[in-house]
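Appendix B, record 7
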Amino acid sequence: MTMALAPASRDSAVAWTRTTLPRTPTLIRFRWRYQDERVKYAGRGSTRIARPDSLRFDFAGPFNLGNGAAVVIGDSVAWADPEKNFRSLVPAIPMLWAAFAMVRPPANDARVLGGQLVDSVTHKRRVFWRFAQVEDTLDYVVTDSGGRESLLEAEWRRRGAVVARSRSQLDALRRPASARVDFPEAPARFELTVGVVDTAAVIPPNVWRSRR
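Structure tokens (predicted):
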């Protein structure tokens, strides 16, 4: 963070996080890349999102290798198939939401702080939020360029050490366009580029229950 933050109400933070969610059930198709010190993978994927807290994540590598799916409800994984593939690709659930330019509400026991800065020359506005618990702290910074592309940055720290950082670009309609998530300890990186955002998608109920 580049500024001092002041205590803020949890209700105001929850209201802000709701503005990051799509208003209707949404299907996002994307290309992805993952690399760490041992491997490099790339492929295609899709994410289905339903308010207020449901996300299904499907991914596949070249020739359908390394594929899998998972359903995330809030901050928890409801199921993952196969779990090993999903956990290796997505080791941090808060960062998966942030990669698609969405923010989960602060936990009930989180200390909430916030603030904002406005550049008098460029009129860019930066909004800061911090959700701090005993062990975990989540920081979010939104840079709004006044109707043009905007940016959501997130950082997750556990016991003071950075677990992950993300940087998500939004288009002029405030839809996710691209993202990069870095895991410094591994070190590893996950990147995605969005191809399609379908806000008229019909999501069958069975997609939340099982991959098969």
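Remarks on this record: The chain has one domain: 6-208. The CA atoms of residues 180 and 191 lie 4 Å apart.
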